[in-house]
Amino acid sequence: MAHNNTVLGQMLQLLPRHVFEHQVETLAWQGPKPRKLSYWSQLVAMLYAQLSGKKSLRDLVFSLGRHLPKLYHLGLSPVKRSTLADANELRPARVFAQTYFQLLSRLQAELARQSGPRRVKILDATYVPVCDSLFPWADFMPGKGAVKLHFLLDAAAGTPQDLHVTSGQVHELEVARALSFAPGDLLLLDRGYVDFAWLYSLHQQGVGFVTRLPGNIRYQVVQENPGPSDSAVLADQAIRLSTPYSRSHYPETMRLVHYRDPDSGKEYVFLTNLPDLSALAVADLYRQRWQIETFFRWIKQNLKIKTFYGTSENAVLIQIWTALIAYLLLLWLKVRSWVGWSILQLTRLVQTLIMERANLWALLCPRTPDPPDYGQLTLFNLSGAR
Predict the structure, then answer these.
(1) Do residues 28 and 82 share a domain?
(2) For the segment 110-160, what is each residue's pLDDT rounded down to a tens digit?
(3) What predicted TM-score, i.e. pTM, was given to this entire model?
(4) Rg of the Cα trace of the chain?
């Protein structure tokens, strides 16, 4: 019978070790030099914790100890809890952040070849409550602490394009203003991001946006755009802000779309700078924003980001970035699969078989028992062609 590496080992072949080691050499030269636990061992241990759902470092170390004969093929040395805790405390989190972006760029290149460029992006943030006495850096409000995750999500691929981790009291707009976008990008935003000076700067850069109109905004209608009388669109108007303060920040006209959902009967008022789309297309675009709410719910339920293995900001950052690397590996498996696995099914499969010697690619693509060529990082497209 042919030898199979563990499922975790086969997943790690999507992340070439030399790419990770290059990040270590580039970004960690000022940090403490590893004596017992290498950076690669730290990464593999944290990915194992994420993909197997371990509750704590003690649980993680105990579980790895039951698989000592299989650790060599993962490039993983035996792990001690105190050593791993110190590594998460002291080693620079930017190594793991840049590793995520390296892996993301490889996946994006293949997705772009399959379906073209992706320009619709969703910007939003979510809270992870923490104990204020254990996480003093994560200020939120008196007596409460929270870590705030600010995500920029690719609407088509479901991949985080950017992430900023702050304390809970940092407003979304502070992070949004620091981001850069390319002309032709289209942002889907909730009402918390309505700052007319920032929106106008996006407009001047050629960046589109769709958001919801806050209830306290005063405006005047410049033009009514006619539409079908039986449409779910109640109004399609060109508007201009009417107060001197708001008009000084956004002096040009915008478009307002008043829409009633045919299923729920709920009404929405959208604000956009896109004049050429139909009103229904604007409503459909904003509906995609709910993908990020689904993403938030999934990562909180299936990855370890609601409880943390360490309390320092650096340890939290490493845990979050390794969670996202694990998510990207699962997403990559979904791309390679031919039989329509959902990412939840893949998560359960990997969690069950993570240290088993099974042919992962035969499970994902039953017609092709041989694994793909890792050296070229060839991706399987959904039709089965290579």
Answers:
(1) yes
(2) 777 655 555 899 999 999 999 988 999 999 988 899 999 999 999 988 899
(3) 0.88
(4) 24
| DSSP-based three-state secondary structure for 112 | helix
pLDDT score of 383: 38
Q: Which domain holds residue 266?
A: 190-283
Q: Are strands 208-212 and 144-154 parallel, antiparallel or unpaired?
A: unpaired
* CA 45 vs CA 48, 60, 85: distances in Å: 5, 8, 11
Amino acid at position 205, single letter = Q
Do 319 and 256 fall within a single domain? no
* CA 195 from centre of chain: 24
168: in domain: no
Instruction: Give 260's strand partners.
Output: 267
- Spatial separation of the C-alpha atoms in residues 199 and 340, rounded to whole Å: 39
Residues 256 and 315 in one domain: no
> What's the rounded Cα separation, in Å, for the pair 147 and 117?
32
Q: In this structure, what token pair is assigned to residue 220?
A: 């005047």
Tell me whether residue 57 is in a domain: yes
Give me the torsion for CA of 360, 365, 367, 368, rounded to 10°.
Answer: -60
- Domain membership flag for residue 293: no
Question: Using an 8 Å Cβ cutoff, are 120 and 156 in contact?
Answer: yes
Regarding whether 343 and 275 lie in a shared domain, the answer is no
Q: By the 8 A CB rule, do 101 and 328 touch? A: no
Tokens of 273: 């700078």
Last residue of a domain, one of 283, 298, 326: 283
Report if residue 347 sits inside a domain.
yes
Widest distance between CA atoms in the chain: 77
User: Residues in the chain with pLDDT < 50?
Assistant: 1-2, 368-369, 371, 373-386
CA–CA gap between residue 138 and residue 311 (Å, rounded): 10
Which of 268, 283, 298 is where one domain is finished? 283
Cβ neighbours, 10 Å, residue 10 = 18
- For residue 333, the one-letter residue type is L
The answer to whether residues 236 and 257 touch, using CB atoms and an 8 Å cutoff, is: yes
Q: What is the DSSP string of 352-365?
A: HHTTSB--HHHHH-
- Over residues 107-124, the pLDDT tens digits come to 888 777 655 555 899 999
Domain count for the chain, please give it: 2
Specify whether 200 is located in the same domain as 274: yes
Q: Are 81 and 65 in contact (CB under 8 A)?
A: no
